[in-house]
């Protein structure tokens, strides 16, 4: 009986190896979304969404957008509100998300502060847009500059400014606007929309950039001597690069000192040419190999110049015979005999 069991086990193993049995493999687990709750949050409107109270990391853009827009609560009073993690988890599950695909961690409670009273001034509009862009794109406040370019509040009538519970909102945008951009600003009285119109802003973000330290023309090859890393506020999209990544690349567009270097300014990396190890008419050492036998001919003459790995013709000065060998080092050529 024991022998039959061994034979059966061996037979199954052979079948599996030969492909006769299809071994079922577990499907890879789907990627999970991370929802990390903050200790406190200040919302920009009377509605509290999950993105207001948590940092959401998810490679699935559709699921990430659904999580960000998930409504959690509405302020009924002008007081602080506290939401428990358990409540937020239930709200996520009720919205139809699979528990196994969401990792909820962070603080056990989130204290939510209501929107602060706003100043219906151009400075108040600028501050509201700055705060909203920092929140929406998870940017640290010291990494963003926002400046209102054209007057906004000054163009409103006095009747429009008489509100009991004024709020300033900015319409959400798909990506961070850099440089001079138009954003739609809304003035509300509680939940009642008073006015919505575009306003022009200058937006800049603090970022690591590579900067030229000297004048560079199209013949220059970038090195650590002519560029450096800097932290700057930039008002246009800039490639996230480090100087170390650009060493050896040739400049394709002239650059001035202090100018930011991007990928459009550089071409492919310049590969340095291998040096010539042998010049024509140089004396070389010729090493001939056949099987395990090695013969060294100390006096030979190179008839061609060659780099490492190149085949050149060499004259054996002892026999005056010309052979073809491979350059392996400075002044040394190897020949493999048949």
From TrEMBL:
Q: Which domain of life is it from?
A: Bacteria
> What biological process terms from GO does the record include?
bacterial-type flagellum assembly
**Entry's Gene Ontology cellular component terms:** periplasmic space
Signal peptide start and end residues: 1-18
Any one Pfam family match given in the protein's UniProt record, by short name? ChapFlgA
Positions of the SAF domain: 207-267
| Subcellular localization | Periplasm
Q: Give the record's keywords alphabetically.
A: Cell projection, Cilium, Flagellum, Periplasm, Signal
Designated name of the protein: Flagella basal body P-ring formation protein FlgA
Tell me the Gene3D superfamilies matching this sequence: 2.30.30.760, Antifreeze-like/N-acetylneuraminic acid synthase C-terminal domain
Q: What is its main location?
A: periplasm
């Amino acid at each position: 009986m024991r022998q039959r069991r061994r034979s059966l086990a061996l037979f199954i193993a052979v079948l599996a190896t030969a492909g006769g049995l299809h071994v079922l493999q577990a499907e890879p687990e789907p990627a999970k979304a991370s929802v990390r709750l903050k200790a406190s949050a200040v919302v920009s409107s009377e509605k509290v969404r999950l993105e207001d109270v948590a940092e959401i990391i998810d490679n699935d853009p559709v699921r990430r957008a659904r999580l960000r827009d998930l409504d959690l609560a509405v302020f009924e009073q002008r007081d602080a509100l506290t939401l428990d993690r358990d409540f937020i988890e239930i709200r996520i599950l009720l919205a139809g998300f699979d528990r196994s695909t969401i990792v909820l961690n962070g603080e056990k409670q989130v204290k939510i502060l209501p929107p602060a009273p706003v100043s219906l001034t151009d400075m108040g509009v600028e501050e509201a847009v700055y705060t909203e862009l920092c929140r929406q794109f998870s940017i640290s406040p010291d990494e963003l500059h926002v400046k209102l370019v054209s007057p906004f509040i000054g163009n409103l009538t006095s009747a429009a400014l008489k509100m009991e519970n004024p709020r300033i909102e900015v319409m959400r945008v798909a990506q961070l606007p850099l440089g001079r951009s138009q954003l739609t600003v809304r003035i509300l009285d509680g939940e009642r929309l008073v006015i919505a119109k575009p306003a022009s802003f200058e937006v800049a973000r603090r970022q690591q950039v590579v900067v030229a330290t000297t004048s560079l023309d199209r013949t220059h090859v970038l090195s650590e001597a002519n560029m450096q890393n800097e932290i700057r506020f930039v008002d246009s999209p800039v490639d996230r690069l480090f100087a170390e990544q650009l060493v050896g690349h040739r400049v394709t567009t002239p650059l001035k000192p202090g100018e930011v270097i991007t990928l459009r300014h550089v071409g492919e990396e310049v590969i340095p040419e291998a040096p010539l190890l042998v010049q024509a008419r140089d004396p070389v050492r010729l090493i001939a190999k056949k099987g395990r036998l090695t013969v060294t001919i100390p006096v030979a003459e190179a008839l061609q110049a060659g780099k490492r790995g190149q085949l050149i013709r060499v004259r054996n000065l002892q026999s005056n015979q010309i052979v073809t060998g491979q350059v392996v080092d400075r002044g040394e050529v190897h020949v493999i005999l048949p």
